[in-house]
Amino acid sequence: MLLVEEYRNREAYRVINEQSEIWPAIHSRKFSLCTDWRRLKITDIFVSRLLARVDLKHATLKYRALDFSRCPALEQLDMLCCRVHVDNILSQSLRQLSITECDFGRSTRCRISAPCLTSLQLVVSSGRAPFLDEMPLLLTANVRLGDWSCADICVNNRYYGDCGDGNCRGCFGSRGDGSSVLLLRLVKRHGHRNHKLP
């Protein structure tokens, strides 16, 4: 296991941020990053044939795509209190995904593509709720959206199709669905069974 902890020291923070560039080439089955008060910026994605689990806490992720295709053994991804400002999260092998108390971007809607996912826990604190691709193996989903700061509902009350209003935080970038983008996707695929919906 590779464990990175950040302490309340500006110099240590600077050094750890500089060293983060070498983290992607990991020769371990588990990678944990835990910071307390300063968010570390991870500038590249991981590459490892062995990596099976990634735990991130208080990290800032800024990519066009968080693509784990170069981590074929990855089965579990846990993110807690992170800034997830990515367009896509992609993994063909991921089975368990937990994104808790995270802030998503406000200008684009993150698309999650993990076709082998069996378990999803998603608590969106703020930003635009992500859009889910097909997850035919999904057995359990525990989903909670933040209050007014989480943009997932059409403000113009158009429940079918994009309302066309470029200022609508719920519809913009949702690719044709103006209702609850995240929850509707779950219900369409699996109905209400086995899902904890708010």
UniProtKB/TrEMBL annotation:
Q: Which InterPro entries match?
A: F-box_SCFL_complex_component (IPR053197)
Protein name per Swiss-Prot or TrEMBL:
Uncharacterized protein
State the organism named in the record. Digitaria exilis
